Amino acid sequence: MTSRPTGTLAQRKRQLVADELTQAALGLLARGGFDAVTVDEIAAAAGVSKRTFFRYFASKEDVVVQFLTGLGTAMREELTSRPAPEPPSTALRHTVWRSIDACAGQTERTLRVVQLILGTPALLARFLERQAQWREELAAEVAGRLGLDPATELYPRLAAGMALTAFHTVLQRWSESDGTEDPAALTDGCFAVIAPALDAVVGE
Amino acid sequence: MTSRPTGTLAQRKRQLVADELTQAALGLLARGGFDAVTVDEIAAAAGVSKRTFFRYFASKEDVVVQFLTGLGTAMREELTSRPAPEPPSTALRHTVWRSIDACAGQTERTLRVVQLILGTPALLARFLERQAQWREELAAEVAGRLGLDPATELYPRLAAGMALTAFHTVLQRWSESDGTEDPAALTDGCFAVIAPALDAVVGE
DNA sequence: CCCTACGTGTCACCAAGTGTCAAGGATGAC
DNA sequence: GTCATCCTTGACACTTGGTGACACGTAGGG
Question: Which residues form a coiled coil (chains A, B) (predicted)?
Answer without folding.
Answer: none
